[in-house]
Specification:
Layout lengths: L3 E5 L3 H12 L3 E5 L2 H11 L3 E5 L7 H10 L7 E6 L4 H10 L3 E4 L7 H12 L1
Parallel strand pairs: 1-2, 1-3, 3-4, 4-5
Helix pairs in contact: 2-3
């Protein structure tokens, strides 16, 4: 069975790129804000959530905290996506409950391998 990934990204260009890279290997769902993401997690039960940190309204770290607070999401892997590659941002993401961190712009040559590593850690 194909793994399911939810991409939460408000930048349409980034969203299209991530979706293009992932769709050949995974079932992909998308959301452009945290509210859509919360509904999508309940509906589609993804194996992995890739969330932009800087989302309109509820940010990606608050989204992560909300997902972690729901006991039904215990095994859900969450990876933060951000243009801020500083150590402090990575630490904030991990403290919020993210399992990992990917800096944007992504390296398209290593992106799929990084995603696979996160999915393997969930198994």
């Amino acid at each position: 069975m194909r793994k399911r990934i939810l991409i939460v990204e408000d930048n349409s260009s980034n969203l299209r790129l991530f979706e293009l890279l992932l769709r050949a290997e995974y079932t992909v769902d998308t959301a452009t804000c945290a509210e859509e993401a919360l509904a999508a997690v309940s509906r589609c039960k993804p194996d992995l959530v890739l969330t932009d940190v800087q989302l309109p309204g509820i940010d990606g770290l608050t989204l992560t905290r909300r997902l972690r607070a729901d006991g039904a999401n215990g095994s859900l892997r969450i990876v933060a996506l951000t243009a801020y590659a500083m150590v402090e941002e990575r630490n904030r993401a991990l403290a919020a409950g993210c399992d990992g961190f990917i800096s944007k712009p992504i390296d398209t040559r290593t992106f799929l391998a990084t995603i696979e590593e996160h999915l393997e850690q969930a198994s």
